Amino acid sequence: RYFCGDVYSGEWDFDKRHGEGKLLYAKGDWYEGQWLKDHKSGEGTQVYTFDGMQYSGEWTASLKDGYGKASWNNGDEYEGHWGVGRRTKEGVMRYGNGDMFRGQWVNDRKEGGGQMVWASKQCYEGEWIANKCNGDGRMQYPNGDVYYGQWVRSKRTGRGMLRQANGDKFE
């Protein structure tokens, strides 16, 4: 037991958590998994009481780092790569409302190539910057219309073509 109220049970090496162990935080969070010289390192699971997040996967220096899965109380789920505690590289985010994003992440943001499918069946495939459709992309609307072209901050702009479901084309 620590002075702050946290409780650790598991393996030790030279007064440091090392090997397999479980840490119960005084505020209600907990971590169970591998430790290396007092840091979460290797495979482990952490549950956070603040937002209900549960993460299971790889850790380095007490940060989510490598492949892992996370879920939240609101039904959101992420599976993919993490770096320095944030979603990065390839990953799939399924939102509790039925939306889904599959693609590139940088620092917890959609960044690079990716596809977003909304619960409404609207679908965008293309480039992203800072969680916004940005660059070349293709949006298919629930009514069957399809727009190919340039996007800036999730708005159609510049060159593009709209092909309506009835076959009409506008450039």
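Above is the first protein from milestone M3; the second protein from the same milestone is given next.
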Amino acid sequence: AGSDSIVAVYGGDANTLTSTSSALIETVTDAMSAFSVSCLPNPITYGPENTLCTATVSSGATGVVVWTINGGGWATVPISGNISTAGGFSTWAAGTYTITAAYSGDGDYSPASASTTLTINKSDTVTTGSLSANPITYGQTFNAPVNITCASACGSVQYMLDGSPWGTAIL
């Protein structure tokens, strides 16, 4: 992109004089960047799954793509083979995120940006329990262990007895 001065020069011959045209200014503007962003797979589940977000730019474009999540800084990644990628969501909380990729432009392509929404769903849990003795005699103690399988720190479990809170255990 830029401006160039073009002049035609005729060297003359035995019958004509030399001549030079007036300068013609040719202006070449930046090409508009073909630009898109996507995250695949989408949605993902908290914990075990991950996704890769890809920004695709015009073939031949150079420079970097600046990635943001919900408007906050995330990564700056160079373009390679007309794509820039960012990922790493396995520890992000369940929720909906706006992923934006912004291309800074180069000498031939204009800046561009695009956004997509990434959804991270809550992970499933499996809760099982057992009784150490059943039936029991009035006044007899018993244990009620519980097993909970989840993607990370699960928090706590509340025991219910006939529909009323009975106790809480931190997992």
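Note on the second protein: DSSP finds no helices and 16 strands in the chain.
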